[in-house]
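Dear colleagues,

As part of the handover before I leave the project, I'm documenting each prediction I ran so the next person doesn't have to rerun anything. This entry is a single chain, and its sequence is reproduced below.
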Amino acid sequence: MILRRETKQIHVGNVAVGGSSPVSVQSMTNTDTRDVAKTVAQIERLQDAGCEIIRVAVLDTDAAAAIRSIREKICIPLIADIHFDHRLAVAAMENGAQGIRINPGNLGGPEKLAKVVHAARAHRVPIRVGVNSGSIEKDLLKEFGYPSEDNPKSLIESALRNVRLLEEQGFSEIKISIKSSDTLTTISAYQQLSKLTDYPLHIGVTEAGGLIAGTVKSSVALGILLHQGIGDTFRISLTRDPVEEIRVGFELLRSLKIRERGPELISCPTCGRTQIDLFSIAEEVERYVQTMKKRLKVAVMGCVVNGPGEAKEADIGLAGGNGVGIIFKKGELYKKVKEEELLETFLNELKQLEEE
């Protein structure tokens, strides 16, 4: 059983982060925030996949203003990602951002930071102190060195320094992230930071890579941390459609038995007995089950002879070969169809199960 680290609870819109609240899964759009239609369309796809908090880049005042229109059309809390310009942070909150991500030390001094804190307090917006290995202050790098697995201190000290800047303004609705592109450095840094503060932690590996490399690096780092009870919210960072980040995120939580959303998909790795295009079928089924909320075990198997038996614990599954497709439930034959009709028939069965 995983014992969560005790943290202070904050709220990003209607989503609680920290305390006893569920570990939340979030992502970031890769659209131009100023293009409201495209940004909303992407967020809607992310919502369907289960995304619980979304972050958008705020590059200028037009992007900050677009937040108002975007907020009107989406159902999940929106965080504005700000770099350097305190005016954009203030404008984003005035236009409805429900959280901001900043590096307080990079906003131009105490007076400018005070304006951001004043707006955050007025609009009841939490602040994420986000520090990456590439954004550490030069004096900390000189004192502690570049962060590594054995010595992540500069990363930790940068985060705590920036937290203190907010605390000196009397502000405590804070969460912290300290990300590295190195898996072991990320693990070590969060392990040490978790012993020094009770603020909720946003965990992640920054610039993790494409679908395979990014999934592996993020799953190793976040899997270890979450298993140790560290982490209140996270993003799987992939050079990919952000919907893939949500899919990986929930599968990670499912594998640790922390949270389950929708069906669990099991599929065989294929072998010489496979006589159907199982890769394409599995991809289509996986894409569909990501939109489902009912908790089921769904199987996609390549062999009509062994498939049902190997997946007899599945609530529903399919297998095919030699022009014939079968749909089975709990290992027993339920329906036999032509191979070319198998996918469509199976998706209809899933739809009916969801509606029951």
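Residues 10-255 form a domain with the TIM Barrel fold (CATH 3.20.20.20). Residues 211-227 form the longest helix (17 residues).

All the best with the project,
I.
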